[in-house]
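Whether sequence alone determines local backbone shape is best considered at the level of individual chains. Part of our work consisted of pairing the sequence of a single chain with a tokenised description of its backbone. This step matters because it turns folding into a mapping between discrete strings. For completeness, the protein is quoted in full, as a sequence line and a line of structure tokens:

_____
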Amino acid sequence: MLKAKAQQTKRGNQMPDESTNERKEQAMKQLESQRDAHTKKEGLSRGRRGLVIVNTGNGKGKTTAALGLMLRAHGRGLRVKLFQFIKHENAKFGEHRALETLGIPFAGLGDGFTWRSKDLDSSADMAAAGWEQAKAAILSGEHDLIVLDEFTYALTYGWVGWPEVQKTLDARDAGLHVVITGRGALPELTEYADTVTEMGMVKHAYAAGIGAQAGIEH
């Protein structure tokens, strides 16, 4: 009785403004229409089929989304691994600390921020060597999901050739998911991939003078 009365009081204290009421009314009509029109697509495959997923675009969240997918896969018992083509092997950002806690393997293959590199030839060599490690993992049959974080740059800069990457992806285990992140994904990659998300820049705190924060950017 007291609980019901408290709920009634709570509802009574809520006084939505006119624009909120209008938004709700329009949304309810749209949701009802969508619900009534929905039909399940026929011919959908069942079971796992390995996907190539690309997170690209100039907006924030490409690596973050890939890490979230890794967490979901790990929770389902999938064997996952992360290769980072920009971050160096001794990086200890938030994701590395979390992955260590969860026992998820990862490897830093780069030299930090490529655009600050004083030796681009070395950066290119590191990317090529990193790709050899990632390729071996892709072909090993020991993983269910592999993330190639910020790998688009190695492809765009010509440090790793797309034909070899495509050949490797073609030869992988049929159930292996591969996620590739980074700006400026090659057209060949986006054409090849099963799912491509382009994250657009709408607004970023950096433009307002707010710097990178631990736990948010790193």
User: Anything to note?
Assistant: The radius of gyration is 22 Å. The helical segments are 2-13, 18-37, 62-75, 94-102, 120-140, 152-156, 162-171, 187-192. The mean pLDDT is 87.
